[in-house]
Amino acid sequence: MLDKFINNPGEWLKGKGPYSDVVISSRIRLARNLREFLFPVKLPVKSRADVVNKIDKVVKEAKFSKPLFKFNMESMDILDRHFLLERHLASLEFINNPKGRALFLSKDETISIMVNEEDHLRLQVIKSGFDLPLVWSIINNIDECLAEHLDFAFSADIGFLTSCPTNTGTGMRASVMVHLPGLIMTKRINKVLNLITKLSFTARGLFGEGTQALGNFFQISNQVTLGLSEQEIIDSLRNIISQLREQELGARKYLLDKQGPAIEDKIWRSYGILKSARLIDSGETLQHLSLLRLGVDLGIIKGITRAMLDYLFIIIQPAHLQKLQGRVLNVRERDFIRAALLREKLGG
Amino acid sequence: MLDKFINNPGEWLKGKGPYSDVVISSRIRLARNLREFLFPVKLPVKSRADVVNKIDKVVKEAKFSKPLFKFNMESMDILDRHFLLERHLASLEFINNPKGRALFLSKDETISIMVNEEDHLRLQVIKSGFDLPLVWSIINNIDECLAEHLDFAFSADIGFLTSCPTNTGTGMRASVMVHLPGLIMTKRINKVLNLITKLSFTARGLFGEGTQALGNFFQISNQVTLGLSEQEIIDSLRNIISQLREQELGARKYLLDKQGPAIEDKIWRSYGILKSARLIDSGETLQHLSLLRLGVDLGIIKGITRAMLDYLFIIIQPAHLQKLQGRVLNVRERDFIRAALLREKLGG
After folding, report:
1. Among A111, B16, B155, B331, whose CB has the most other CB atoms within 10 angstroms?
2. Which chain B residue shows the shortest CA-CA distance from A264?
3. Residue A114 near residue A1, CB atoms below 8 Å
4. Residue A88 region, left (φ>0) first, then alpha (ψ -120 to 50), else beta?
């Protein structure tokens, strides 16, 4: 079943949607817990199946806009689990300890629910481009739909109760993945990120908490979920991303005006290396793909779509490569196959 | 007149001839002086014209296999003079002080004579590939032909007399330009060059004395001209180059056997950068062209001839680029035009 996903990029990798020159995707996740069960951190492992079964039943009965498929994490091999991580559909903690955990997933990957991660439910909706209102309306529908059948742990004073107090309240984290090569190349990035932090938002790397800003990607998300309404969080984030995009586009314009030939040279060289290399690791690939995306965004490189690039960002990851090959690969083999894949996709 | 040369690579850039996988060209030059004049270092500048006129007359009368064209260095602009330097047809000292100096040159650049460099005559014959006997037979014919009409400064005890004692005797320097990327990549180069030095031969960079080993090229030549016959010098050099080629081919085989994918990767990346860059300096270009030539020699890269590469090694030099453009270019402009030229020639 999971194999069907490998060759079809999720909707959020379509490189479409508003502001797609800077914004890759918009995502909201909601943390929810069932009142009748101990929270996952306290719940005996053998009881986790009861939570999964309960949610499975509700998902089947609920009238979601898209059907969700259930994946039992325990019976899934490590490669498939890493595939989900690379696809931004599961967390590292979730895939590393699969016992009694399940994932529900729509075919286009827009909707997913991790069951028995830190909380009983972690709903996620992700779309390409910058469209938090749309994402919110989808996830809010699902949440309301589930709430009709499930009794969520909720306090009238505080809001939704969660395992970690940082999620208590709305239980919401809204995050937007942005591509900021201009701010990095003009060395303005730290100033901008500091400002974001002061506004109680946070910037993380490509794979969330604790990961590096590979390929000039950042996930901007809210730090506070308590004492604010969902709409307030979304509005603040929209505001920040709008300004961030202005800053990034300004930086790109500055680079083109002041260092045009040097920037074009960097971009074309990255393109040349991606089309030529016979061995390439994922870190270097992300860096070159980032410059190539900048080249496409600036109209310097023609004939390559953002969708292709955003898809490449994902499939050059280790688990994706191994899924594509249908076998476990060592680092050297991956570097070899990654290079071959890039040449194939970019016409090298 | 000189403009006719720019678009036609000299014979020695044809990438042909024996051992052309390692040997770019074979060259012999003979230093000769006229008994009736003071040597150039002592000769008053105003008398230099007398030497030029004398030789011009003889060249016109002599029955050389190829006609020689005369270039007055003083009336030649600096760009054209640098063009001759890059083309290995004149020395740095010769072009920097053009007063009273002249160059005689055959259309295919095989034969050249610098007049009033350090010695009255510096005859040079250069051919592609490894063919010192052929080069010797050509230059020996010219030398004999000239000797019929000119009275060379010669001592029965010592041989030909020259301005610098290191050239006295045969007045001959035989040099072979070799491409040694394998020995450099396997870090065996210093050992091999030390051995050559012990045998009284010397290894210089691409543009002769005092220049760096750019692009993995070396000129191997004799240090001693006194007390040995021309044939002995040529035989020793032939011997050394044969062994050097074996060493280089051994190193290439070792690299392919032990680090095949990594070497292929390096070669393809160099090719990719040459076909993609929008700004590139000559040092980096030589390095990538060197790897590309290795790729062609190893059969990894198809569809590019050695002749094309050997020609590119020359025309990416500053004066060549400026001659091609027909105007003086600053460094930045050269980097830009060099990159465009490489893309055009390599189908980038």
Report:
1. A111
2. B278
3. no
4. left
Which sign does the torsion angle of CA B203, B208, B214, B215 carry? Answer: negative
Helix H or strand E segment including A104:
strand A102-106
Contacts of A332 in chain B (CB under 8 A): 261
Q: What is the 3-state secondary structure (H, E, C) of B74-102?
A: HHCCHHHHHHHHHCCCCCHHHHHCCCCCE
- Using CA atoms, how far apart are residues B319 and B334, in angstroms rounded to an integer? 10
Q: Which residues of A touch B280 (CB under 8 A)?
A: 265
Nearest alpha carbon to residue B315 among B46, B10, B64: B10
For residue B294, which of B211, B219, B183 has the smallest C-alpha distance? B183
Contact B265 A348 (CB under 8 A): no
Looking at the complex, report in whole angstroms how far the Cα of residue A332 sits from the nearest Cα belonging to chain B. 10
CA distance, residue A265 to nearest chain B CA (Å)? 4
Nearest to B279 among A261, A276, A332 (CB): A261
pLDDT at B326: 87
* A57-102 pLDDT, tens digit each: 999 888 788 889 999 999 999 889 999 998 889 999 999 999 999 9
For this complex, say whether ipTM is above 0.85: no
Q: How many residues does chain B have?
A: 348
Contacts with A331 from chain B: Cβ below 8 Å: none
In chain B, what residues touch A284 (CB-CB under 8 Å)? none
User: Looking at the DSSP assignment, which residues form a beta bridge with residue A178?
Assistant: A23, A218
**Max CA separation in chain A (angstroms):** 64
CA B14 to chain CA mean position, Å: 13
Which of A258, A278, A338 is the best substitution to test chain B (most B C-beta atoms within 10 A)?
Answer: A278
Show Cβ contacts of residue B180 under 8 Å, excluding neighbours closer than 6 positions.
Answer: B22, B189, B192, B216, B217, B218, B244, B248
Q: Which DSSP helix (H) or strand (E) runs through B342? A: helix B331-346
pLDDT at A206 over 70: no
A7-16, A259-268, A317-326, B304-313: which is most confident: A259-268
Among candidate residues A101, A85, A100, the one with its CA nearest the CA of residue A323? A85
Interface touch A273/B273, C-beta < 8 Å: yes
Q: What residue of B is the nearest CA neighbor of A301?
A: B276
Interface residue ranges in chain A relative to chain B, Cβ cutoff 8 Å: 261-262, 264-265, 268-269, 271-273, 275-280, 332, 336, 339, 348
Alpha-carbon gap: A82 to the closest alpha carbon of chain B (Å): 27
End-to-end CA distance of chain B: 32
Rounded CA-CA distance B219/B214 in Å is: 11
CA distance A215 to A234: 26
Q: How many residues does chain A have?
A: 348
User: Helix, strand or coil for residue B38?
Assistant: coil
- Average pLDDT of span A257-286: 95
Question: Is the Cβ–Cβ distance between A332 and A34 less than 8 Å?
Answer: no
Contact B278 A264 (CB under 8 A): yes
CA distance linking residue B243 with residue B226, whole number of Å:
24
Taking one residue from A and the other from B, the number of pairs with CB-CB distance under 8 angstroms is: 54
- Give the CA distances from residue B37 to residues B40, B46, B71, in Å, rounded to whole numbers and listed in that order: 8, 12, 21
Tokens 């330009």 belong to residue: B177
Position A152, amino acid: F
Structural domains in chain B, CATH included, are: 2-248 (3.30.590.10)
Query: Contact, A38 vs A108, CB < 8 A?
Result: no
pTM: 0.86
- The Cβ of residue B138 has, within 10 Å, a number of other Cβ atoms equal to 21
